[in-house]
Amino acid sequence: MMMIPSAFAQFQSGGVDKPGTWYVGEGLKQGDYFSYDMCHVDYKECAQFGLDMWIKGDKQVGSETKWLAEVVVYDGNKVIVGEMELGKIAPEPTGGSQELGVYRGAFKSSVAWLSAFATADSDSGGKGPKAFSAKSWGKIGNIGGEQVLPMKIETITISSGTWETVQVGWRTGGYTSKVWIVDEFPFPVKAHTLTHVSEGIPPAEYKFELLDYKENVSSTPFSGIVSTVDTFSAQGCDTDFERDISVKKPTNNFDYQIHAFYGPEDPVQGCEMQWLIKFISKFDDTEFLNQVQFDFLVVDDNLTPLRSIAQEEGRQFLYSPSGQYILDMIVKEKPGNANYVIWVYGLSPEGIIPSTASDYLKIPVTIFAGEQSSSVTTPIIPPVTSPPQKIPEWIKNNAGWWADGAIDDNSFVQGIQFLIKEGIMQIPPTAQGSGSSNEIPSWIKNNAGWWADGAIDDNSFVQGIQFLIKEGIMTISS
Q1: What tens digit of pLDDT does each residue of 137-165 get?
Q2: Within 10 Å of residue 443's Cβ, how many Cβ atoms?
Q3: In terms of pTM, does the model score above 0.70?
Q4: What's the pLDDT tens digit per position in 290-314?
Q5: Residue 287 contacts by C-beta under 8 Å, 6 or more apart in sequence?
Q6: 3-state DSSP call for residue 90?
Q7: What is the CATH number of domain 6-214?
Q8: Domain 238-367 has CATH 3.30.1490.190
Q9: In 216-332, which residue ranges form alpha helices assigned H by DSSP?
Q10: Is 170 helix (H, G, I), strand (E, B) or coil?
Q11: What are the phi and psi torsion angles at 230 (to 5°)?
Q12: Angle in degrees, 0-180, between the axes of helices 458-470 and 409-421, rounded to the nearest 10
């Protein structure tokens, strides 16, 4: 007889020392307002979007009474306003506005996902409430599925406040997926779950966090919010287009092959444009690259970046774990010829700077004036070549980590070298020194920490970087 290792047996047996039960939708009532930041792998490979939901009241659908919720989704440059119907036994979306379809699916498979194990009523075909002390709430799949377990009691602080939670989890390819639930609260307040992979670091399956919660909201909190598609329609934009234009070419240095599709065929200033970008092996047309770190830029004729979609989204890179990426954007370029560039930094896990040289594909596109181009106003995005006061906010994270000792000197210098070399961070012209010292003065590290905390301005931080270059501590290749 084979003995089960004790560690495995221990993990498979869950339960926490807390009385009571829980199910998805527990305590849900009219007037509840929720605001989530979330993503799901089935929608743009876990690209984040915001979903705000207000429980308006009951809706009769045939013989069934459902919850009717008003919903607003904030997805990049898009705002989508609509309604969603939620079941009473399990508050999964079962209907609603057509334009919310993909977001309903993401909500069902993330925020409401535990309804596959815990529902309000076991007598009507549901799973019934589950006890916090239960050893298992069930398993994923029918054969070989991992157990979903109450793992521990944990106090967490998130954007919506401090919560006393029970962490529910399950193993996924050597890693633990986690969902944090609160007794007598309808939906989980936080989650970070992972897809199953045979090797390597698994990408996220879904992530979410409750940003805000209010009770007894008596009237719609979404008054005056208009869907982006309605705004575009009022401007005369084409809102029903396909990605019909195809461009398939190798990158400039032949390191990668890119197959890009975009629409509409005639992009209009101030209107929406969508791209599907496929990153393909240069050796095999059928092999997609994975873990692609890239950006989508607008450049001038000298390849100087004028606009970065990654920076507009507050990110260092755009990232595609599977090699396929859907990008929505608003055309801010003036009528005439625009140079769009897919700039590939390299292949590496998210959050790790690629060590390979960058390569790019430039795609010229003709931009047309809209019917109301004279009155259409779009946000002005600072060009990547802005002066030091426009340094992207995320660079401060690196400086703060370095000042706190979380990353070493060499990693900090390499990161700054990379940012300057790639034109992401601009500094004034600085003579290159030839010193041999590799020791970074302590006041430079102090500056970085103060800059990260907002105690000194960007110019003071850049002066420190200039010092490193002048002294030869930091070398920037031409």
Answers
A1: 998 864 456 899 999 999 999 999 999 99
A2: 10
A3: no
A4: 889 999 999 999 999 999 998 888 7
A5: 280, 281
A6: coil
A7: 2.40.360
A8: no
A9: 228-234, 309-312
A10: strand
A11: -70, -40
A12: 100
